[in-house]
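Hi support team,

I'm filing this because I wasn't sure whether my run with magnesium ion finished correctly. The job status page said complete, but I'd like someone to confirm that the output block is well-formed before I use it downstream. Pasting the exact inputs I used:
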Amino acid sequence: MTTPTATASRPLLEVRDLHVTYRQGGQAVPAVRGVDFTLAPGDTLGVAGESGCGKSTMALSLLRLHGDAAKVTGEVLFDGENLLTTSWSKLRAVRWAGASVVFQGAMSALNPVRTVLDQIVEPMVLHDRVGPKEAERRATELLDSVGIPARRIRSYPHEFSGGQRQRVMIAMALACRPDLIIADEPTTALDVMVQAQILELLGELVRESRIAVIMITHDLSLLAHTCDRLAVMYAGRIVELGPSRQVLKDPQHPYTRSLSQAFPTIGDPASRRAPAGLPGDPPRPGENDQGCAFAPRCPEAEESCRSGELLLWPTGPGRSAACRHVPPQHGGTS
Ligand SMILES: Nc1ncnc2c1ncn2[C@@H]1O[C@H](COP(=O)(O)OP(=O)(O)OP(=O)(O)O)[C@@H](O)[C@H]1O
Ligand SMILES: [Mg+2]
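And here is everything the job wrote out:
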C-alpha cells in the first residue's frame, strides 16, 4: 500500500481466539485451537513447530485462504477490520495491497507462459493503479533488489533456478508495497545455503520498508536470525511466544527446549516429521485435548499436566508460555 494503514496506537494485526476445524469424512479435525497474537507495523514473527501442528492452517486462515472444508472462528483484525467477516471485495483488496503471501514451490505459483516482468507488473497495474511504464520501472527495481539483473526480467520461470524463482516470488509479494507478508516455508525446497541467503534478503527488504512478516519454517535457528519474535506451535496452539533470541537461548516451554535441541536432517524429508532427538509423535488433531498436549512426550510432565485447561500466560517481559511449570509473571505479552 502506498500509505501506512496502521496508526501507532493500533496494531496492524490482532488475532484473537482463532480456531480452525476441518471437516473430513464426517469427522471434525481441530487444526488450530485458540491462537492469539498481535503484530505491530514492521514486526517480524517467526512460527515454528513440527509437521502437522497447524502452522499453515493458521497462516492461510488469516486471509481466508483455507478451503471450504474448514470452519474458522475468532477474530483476525487487520488494521481494525475483521477479515473473517468482511466482504469479499474488501478482502480482495487486502489480499493484493495490504497483505501478501509467499508459499513454497514457486514453480506452481508462477505462470509458466508469461515472463516474470509481466507477472510482477500485473498486480501493480490492476491494484495499485500504476501506469505500465512506471510499473515496469518499479518491477525492474524490485527484481534488482532480489538479485535478478535487468537483462533477465523478460525471461520465463523455467529459465530460472529454484532459488531465483523464490526470489521472483518475493519480488511479487513486495510489488504492491504490502503492510504484511505471510511466508509459509518460502525456502524449504532449496538447499540450506540458498535458504539462508533468501531469508536474509527478505529480512533486509522488510526491515528497510517496515513491512510486518509472519514467517513459517521448521528451522528455529534460521527463524531466530530473521525474525524479532518467535511463536512455537504444538497441536494447534501457541505454546511459547517471545523475543527470538531469548526463546532460542532460554526456552521456557519443554517443547521449545526439545525442538531447539532437535535438528532436521538436511535432505531427509522424514526428519521434518520426526526431528532427531525428539522421540514420539505429536498427537493427531483431536487427540490429547485435555490439559497439555505435549504431556505424553514431555520429560517434565506430572499427572496434573494431563487435565484442565492450559492457557498461554505471561512469563516475563514480552514472553509467554503455556506450561504449568513456568510460573506466571507480569510483563508478558501475547
Ligand atoms: N484440507 C484439510 N482437510 C483436513 N485436514 C487438514 C487439511 N489441511 C490440513 N489438515 C490437518 O490439519 C493439521 C494441521 O495441518 P497444517 O498443514 O496446518 O500443519 P503444518 O504445521 O503446516 O505442517 P507442515 O509443517 O507439514 O507444513 C494436520 O493434522 C493436517 O492433517
Ligand atoms: Mg505447513
